[in-house]
Amino acid sequence: MRRLSPRKRAQRIRWVQYAVLVAAVVILIAVADLRQIQKVFFRGDLIVDTLTQGLGRALFNTVIYALGAFVLGLVLGTILALMRLSSVGPYRWIATVYIEFFRGLPTIIVLLAFGLLPLAFPGLEIPFGIYGTVWSALGIVAAAYMAETIRAGIQAVPKGQVEAARSLGMPAGAATRKIVLPQAFRIVTPPLTNELILVVKDSSLAYIIGLSATSFDLTKYGRDLANTNANLTPLVIAGLCYLIITLPLTFVVRRMEAKSARAR
Question: ABC transmembrane type-1 domain: from which residue to which, for each copy (predicted)?
């Protein structure tokens, strides 16, 4: 019997996999109660109510929460990355402890802690109210992850460029600002975009600190409507809104990674 070439064997394996997938989908459709699925997850009147009762505001709040936290995390993460690479021991120790501590804590605990700060410190007011609280909590956690990403980008910049700048009389701080950081951020832009996607999803935990109707994020908005109507349609709509935010970012990351791979 004639043996198949590796290419033919791979093609047959792929066709078998496709056939199994199609069979699984057909069986799933055959056994599913489509009417019940539509009733529980895609009820027409609740779709209209979800879209018209405040979804736009919830979507806006989610974007604002994520962007504010990302900006704070980026600034703080850059400082931590520079501290982690510093020749001054205490700076490295502080940055290391911070990064390991907040990378190890669940984001929901940090949010809850910030929400309860006014109880621990009577009279304390975080600037910008609930927005400032969410930005601070999410940004502090995001900074711990971004710091490691930025540190890797800084270390990827050839040291010869810094040495050349120093040999021309440029101070170390100026060389870092004008030469190292611009190149480092160009290198780590794709992973930082991934961090933004994670911050967007982490913003769904903001409900834990108690949000008013005007500060609802998508998850809180969908959850309240789902509980009121005993139906999951509002949560499905909220989930689709998250996809509307994150999928374009994912596409951008892939394009940047592909462009970077071609450049190499």
Answer: 59-253
pLDDT in tens, 202-256: 999 998 887 777 889 999 999 999 999 989 999 999 999 999 999 998 888 888 7
Mention every residue, 6+ apart, whose C-beta is less than 8 A from residue 61.
Answer: 215, 216, 217, 218
- Residue 162: give the domain boundaries: 43-263
Closest CA to 54 of 44, 62, 66: 62
Examine residue 165 and state whether it is found in any structural domain, yes or no. yes
CA dihedral 149, 150, 154, 157 (to 10 degrees): 70
Structure confidence at residue 167 as a pLDDT band (50, 70, 90): confident
Angle between helices 233-263 and 181-202 (to 10 degrees): 160
Q: How many CA atoms lie within 13 A of 206 on its CB side?
A: 33
19-36 confidence digits (pLDDT tens): 899 999 888 888 878 888
Domain containing residue 107: CATH number: 1.10.3720.10
Domain assignment present for residue 103? The answer is yes
Confidence of residue 38 (pLDDT cuts 50, 70, 90): confident
Residue from 199, 233, 176 nearest 46 by CA: 233
Residue-wise pLDDT for 170-203, tens only, equals: 777 777 778 888 888 888 888 899 999 999 999 9
16 belongs to a structural domain: no
- Residue corresponding to tokens 């930025």: 150
- Report how far Cα 69 is from the mean position of its chain's Cα atoms: 10
- The alpha carbon dihedral of 77, 78, 83, 84 has a sign of positive
Domains identified in the chain, total number: 1
